[in-house]
Amino acid sequence: MTVAGGVLPVAAGVALVVFAARLAREPRRLGNAVWLGVALLLTALWLLRAALHLEWLTPVLLGLLGVVAVLVALGLPAALIVNGVRMWRREGRSAGNLLSLGLGAGLVTLEALTFAPLGRWGSALVAIAVVLTGYFGFLFLSLLVYSVMYSRIGRRGGFDAIIVLGCGLDGERVPPLLAGRLERAIRLHDREQAPPLLIVSGGRGPGETISEAEAMHAYLRDRGIPDDRIRCEDQARTTEENLRFSAALLPAGARRVVAVTSSYHVFRAAVECRRLGLPFHATGAPTARYFLPSALLREFAALILHYRRTTIAACVVIVGAGLLLAIFA
């Protein structure tokens, strides 16, 4: 076995052990996703290196890698652009709804620039952009995989209280996205022998005639939840305020608390709980598939902003290394 062949499995094992230890200590940490991503990447490289030593498997493997490369280079940007157009038509032209369209167009532009004759410095800048894209792509995939994992390891029952996070109204009507959260909360409530307290959280936003909390309260009441099991928090405008203001309404004995949100928002809500020092976990309701790409990109951007110092430092290192290579190459 070569030195490289021996180092990869050891490094993958170390990364996996670090991830497992961090997960056992505190599952609501963004760093867990990075360690999981590193462990999976090193394991994939190790398996790929081992597979390339099998002569009969090499052509098949290279063919699969070629197909994956084509799908990433052509299929991913096309899918993002199509999704962006669909979001534009269904959800409006807000900046958040156009994220997938913008990212798809950006990837197409970057791929076109890699084949353009831009000279030494132009090519260097494009190469730096490619590396930055790869870095953020790695972070995004790591967060996506870990978010799915996190959503399956949380507490399933025995709750003292359930907090439902608001996400906007259609006038006075509860839209499907918010209804999904409420239905998830109702299912959790109904399967408990001692029904937990339900706290609905959300203020009145632009274009809304009543607060989100008031509309959610009415929805739960219509679905048979008694008034005395519902409390309203009607001032929050952000996820942080949803959690902080709702925590103030909890009875003194409430220790096992879960925040209900949409599937794409679960991990960020959990990270926010940890940042605020709240011993809550989060669970998610299903989300329409067409809505997921833009929603996941928004969540990723929000999480990166939480750790902007680390993000800026990583970008400075990548850009600085790229410029140095261009200077001394």
C-alpha termini separation: 33 Å
Radius of gyration: 23 Å
Which runs of at least 5 residues are low in confidence (pLDDT < 50)? none
Helix count from the secondary structure assignment: 11
DSSP helix fraction: 55-70%
Percent of residues in beta strands? 5-15%
Largest sheet: 5 strands, parallel
**Which sequence of strands runs across the widest sheet?**
3-2-1-4-5
What class would the helix/strand composition place it in? alpha/beta
* Strand elements, count: 5
Strand/helix succession: HHHHHEHEHEHEHEHH
Shape: globular
- Overall mean pLDDT score? 89
How would you portray this structure in words?
The protein is an alpha/beta fold. It is built from eleven helices and five strands; from the N terminus they run H-H-H-H-H-E-H-E-H-E-H-E-H-E-H-H. A five-stranded parallel β-sheet has the order 3-2-1-4-5. Strand 2, helix 7 and strand 3 (230-233) form a beta-alpha-beta unit. Helix 3 (58-91) packs across helix 4 (99-114).
Short description:
With 329 residues, the protein is an alpha/beta fold.
Q: Main attributes?
A:
single chain; 329 residues; alpha/beta; 5-stranded parallel sheet; 11 helices; 64% helix; globular
Topology overview:
Blueprint: H1 3-25, H2 30-52, H3 58-91, H4 99-114, H5 119-151, E1 161-165, H6 176-190, E2 197-201, H7 212-222, E3 230-233, H8 239-247, E4 257-262, H9 266-275, E5 281-285, H10 292-306, H11 308-328
Parallel strand pairs: 1-2, 1-4, 2-3, 4-5
